[in-house]
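Example 4.3 (complexes with small molecules)
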Amino acid sequence: MNISVLGIGDVGLVTATCLAENGNDVVCFDVDSARIDLLVSGGTPIHERGLAELIARNVAFGRLRFTTDAAEAVRHREVVFIATGTPADQDGSADLQYVLAAARSIGEHTSRSGASRSSRTPTTCAKRRAAWARTRCSS
Ligand SMILES: NC(=O)c1ccc[n+]([C@@H]2O[C@H](COP(=O)([O-])OP(=O)(O)OC[C@H]3O[C@@H](n4cnc5c(N)ncnc54)[C@H](O)[C@@H]3O)[C@@H](O)[C@H]2O)c1
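Answer. The structure with nicotinamide-adenine-dinucleotide bound is encoded below.
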């Protein structure tokens, strides 16, 4: 399956690598070009035992690649995971601005024919917050 992961932080990078290891064709997009450059050059921005080897193996197999081109990532996917950060607001609720920005980039680069494809988020947002985000993105 063609999968795209938007947000290649701790969660996104590990998720993307495991999905590639399971045989999926995974494109990883992040707005942080330094992080993507590091990954493209063979570096690993986080330390998880065995992760660097898994990344290298799946890159070599052509199942895992990294980009700062949102259009490329959105076009590639049958399924897209949003794994951007959700830092706490002052009242303790999740700040969804990065999730919403990623959702908007999906909308910007989705053709009419691809609009019914599914999106999933592995974040810890409550269902109520996710519903609120959907409302914001559709307006
Ligand atoms: N890290 C954990 O242990 C952990 C555990 C459970 C749940 N979570 C949840 O998973 C989610 C991701 O957490 P994390 O720790 O990986 O975050 P992180 O801050 O490490 O990574 C987020 C990444 O998203 C990127 N980003 C920001 N805006 C973007 C955009 N518009 N498009 C694409 N990329 C964008 C950032 O550059 C960054 O690399 C959060 O909701 C967090 O609450 C994290």
